[in-house]
């Protein structure tokens, strides 16, 4: 469903991403790994429309989307999280989830002012969906807390829930396990797998935690210094000499 | 106290001397065609010296002063209490608000004409502050040129009445809509800007509008302003002693009561009250709608908001437009109340005062903003006895307020939503 061909991104003299290609099929978890500064997040920013790639194609469900504004890409069903949690910290947990459902709501101002039946109905279904996902990630009891007051692990889960209420087809997670303890990472592992199994969402994952990556990925792409280094199943990647060199340094 | 502290205090005292001595200690006196420089009285010099000493003492012991000030909230008997339950609080709030409105309805019949006039001004400021609250408090867009939209509303009414003889009731929606359109036009070029940069551009925009009004003499009359703006009518009844417009009747004749100048003032007050209540209700509603949540989301984290499919353009423009719309509302009422407007009424200071109201009240909080509007408008009036020192007192009150309660009078409380468990 997602097909990236020869993507490149240049910042002045720096070629941050150079000829990266990857593809994601329906109900598949694809990981992007690589050493720090390899350009993984830049790839994400290009895919999600935050950067306009300087070369290559991004094809999502048969349409070229490179250069489309970020919010339009998100509305097509390609939603991302961030390396550093980006919640609306002064809003409550539920409100965070309601904001995410903006495009499912009746945003006609007059409809809202007069409280038409259609407006109320959509508002209620948004609340129900929010409640469902809060239950799913175990935050229902904290629904009315300010999002900024949650513990770090909870904030991570809320961010994923916030993506899921938009009902995406493809979820892009940027280091979701960063800063989580082993127990939390295990929960996250199960959550991501269930997103694929139960909700038919494809996942693109950037992650440094190798146990997580090897465990749940269907395929892995390795990037080093902006260039594609290898791609294949976890088993192939584990035994790839180039990858081992890149990670451990050349002997 | 460290030596560093004293050095800083000494520096501040010297600055005080340098600034105040030439301003207060030296007088220019015109003798015939010549101007001579003379010294002031001894008492002035003593006062300057005392001021420098006061600055020195304050700066040297500033930390302990501020420490004492920081403990003051503990004097507040309500400081440590548990927050009230949401349902109770909402009920209490709506009772208080209804009470205030009912009281405000009957109040003008009990007090003097001057007080009612002042109260009308307070209500205009409430409308302005509620509108700016959308832009600054909710959407987090620092707008220093808000007064421009106020001016657009006022001048729309003034010009239309001058050239086409339009009535207040017709001008009210036109003025507000035109101000809203102006807000949208300003919104476009500043979409990408945030924070300081946005503040500077909006500041410039406010000045452009004022200077335009000042210099486009053929249309706006320039600094002479526009006079003879009609007062609002009640179903075609005028409030003047004599009917000005053909076809209208006069209020006191229709009801067979003696003419009184107060009728007009009270009527204007009531119009302002109704409009302020409408403004408050509409914006309150907006805050709980998708658009209100989108404003806040954009304030909290623009990048996250965009990643969730919110269009920055639509959200920012809607905030600007709605804020400006209510400023136009207020401007029309203002023009009608004054009967005369000139660019002088729309200087930067007005923007600053409205912004101060929003910040003092607690960004985003409606009740807080209303209280602050009352305080900020009435305080300088109450302090009139102190004549030239009243702005000084006003400034000091603002500084103390911000030290004591940086979050504003009544900070926003989030709405709690009860969720049903989903199967």
Structure overview:
The complex is a heterodimer of chains A (251) and B (423). Chain A has ten helices and ten strands. Chain A is of the alpha/beta class. Chain A has two domains: 1-77 and 169-251, 3-Layer(aba) Sandwich (Rossmann fold), CATH 3.40.50.300; 85-167, 3-Layer(aba) Sandwich (Rossmann fold). In chain A, strands 6-7-8-3-9-10 form a six-stranded mixed sheet, sandwiched between helices. In chain A, strands 2-1-4-5 form a four-stranded antiparallel sheet, with helices on one face. In chain A, helix 3 runs parallel beside helix 6 and helix 5 packs across helix 6. Chain A starts with a strand and ends with a helix. Chain B has 423 residues and is mainly alpha-helical. Chain B folds into two domains: 3-74, no CATH class; 87-404, ABC transporter involved in vitamin B12 uptake, BtuC (Orthogonal Bundle), CATH 1.10.3470. In chain B, 67% of the residues lie in helices and 4% in strands. In chain B, strands 1-2 form a two-stranded antiparallel sheet. Chain B has a two-stranded parallel ribbon with strand order 3-4. In chain B, a hairpin with a 2-residue loop joins strand 1 and strand 2. The mean pLDDT of chain B is 84.
């Amino acid at each position: 469903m997602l097909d990236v061909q020869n993507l490149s991104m240049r910042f002045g003299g720096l070629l941050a991403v150079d000829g990266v290609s990857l593809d994601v099929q329906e109900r598949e978890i694809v990981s992007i790994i690589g050493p720090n500064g390899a350009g993984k997040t830049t790839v994400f920013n290009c895919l999600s429309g935050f950067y306009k790639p300087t070369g290559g194609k991004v094809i999502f469900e048969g349409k070229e989307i490179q250069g489309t504004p970020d919010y339009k890409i998100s509305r097509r069903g390609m939603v991302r999280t961030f390396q550093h949690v980006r919640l609306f910290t002064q809003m409550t947990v539920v409100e965070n989830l309601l904001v995410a459902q903006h495009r499912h709501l009746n945003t006609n101002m007059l409809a809202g002012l007069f409280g038409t039946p259609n407006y109320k109905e959509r508002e209620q279904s948004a609340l129900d969906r929010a409640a469902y996902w809060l239950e799913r990630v175990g935050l229902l009891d904290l629904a009315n807390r300010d999002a900024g007051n949650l513990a770090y692990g909870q904030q991570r889960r809320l961010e994923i829930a916030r993506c899921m209420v938009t009902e995406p087809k493809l979820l892009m997670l940027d280091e979701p396990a960063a800063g989580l303890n082993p127990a939390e990472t295990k929960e996250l592992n199960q959550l991501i797998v269930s997103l694929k199994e139960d909700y038919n969402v494809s996942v693109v994952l950037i992650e440094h935690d190798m146990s997580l990556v090897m465990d749940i990925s269907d395929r892995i792409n390795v990037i080093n210094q902006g260039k594609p280094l290898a791609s294949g199943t976890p088993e192939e990647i584990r035994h790839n000499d180039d990858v081992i060199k890149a990670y451990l340094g050349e002997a | 106290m460290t030596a560093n502290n004293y050095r800083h205090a000494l520096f501040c005292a010297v600055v005080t001397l340098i600034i105040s001595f030439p301003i207060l200690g030296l007088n220019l006196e015109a003798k015939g065609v010549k101007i001579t420089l003379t010294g002031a009285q001894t008492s002035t010099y003593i006062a300057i010296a005392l001021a420098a000493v006061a600055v020195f003492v304050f700066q040297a012991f500033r930390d302990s002063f501020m420490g004492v000030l920081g403990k003051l909230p503990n004097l507040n008997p309500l400081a440590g209490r548990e927050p009230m339950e949401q349902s109770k609080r909402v009920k209490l709030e709506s009772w208080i608000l209804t009470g205030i409105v009912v009281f405000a309805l009957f109040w003008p019949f009990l007090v003097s004409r001057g007080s009612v006039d002042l109260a009308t001004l307070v209500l205009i400021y409430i409308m302005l502050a509620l509108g700016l609250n959308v832009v600054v408090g909710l959407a987090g867009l620092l707008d220093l040129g808000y007064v421009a939209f106020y001016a657009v509303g006022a001048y729309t009414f003034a010009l239309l009445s001058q050239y086409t003889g339009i009535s207040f009731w017709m001008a009210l929606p036109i003025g507000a809509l035109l101000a809203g359109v102006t807000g949208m036009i300003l919104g476009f070029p500043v979409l990408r800007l945030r924070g300081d940069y946005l503040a500077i551009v909006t500041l410039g925009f406010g000045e452009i509008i004022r200077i335009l009004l000042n210099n486009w003499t053929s249309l706006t009359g320039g600094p002479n302003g526009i006079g003879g703006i009609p007062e609002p009518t009640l179903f075609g009844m005028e409030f003047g002693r004599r009917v000005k417009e053909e076809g209208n009747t006069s209020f006191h004749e229709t009801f067979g009561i003696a003419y009184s100048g107060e009728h007009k003032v009270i009527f204007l007050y009531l119009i302002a009250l109704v409009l302020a209540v409408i403004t408050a209700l509409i914006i309150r509603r907006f805050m709980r709608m998708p658009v209100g949540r989108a404003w806040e989301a954009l304030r909290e984290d623009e990048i996250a908001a965009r990643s969730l499919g919110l269009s920055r353009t639509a959200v920012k423009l809607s905030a600007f437009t709605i804020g400006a719309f209510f400023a136009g509302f207020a401007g029309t009422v203002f023009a009608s109340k004054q009967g005369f407007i000139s660019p002088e009424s729309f200087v930067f200071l007005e923007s600053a005062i409205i912004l101060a109201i929003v910040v003092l009240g607690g960004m985003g909080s409606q009740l807080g903003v209303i209280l602050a509007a009352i305080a900020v408008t009435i305080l300088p009036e109450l302090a009139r006895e102190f004549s030239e020192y009243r702005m000084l007192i006003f400034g000091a009150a603002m500084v103390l307020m911000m030290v004591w309660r940086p979050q504003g009078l009544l900070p926003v409380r989030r709405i709690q939503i009860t969720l049903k468990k989903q199967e």
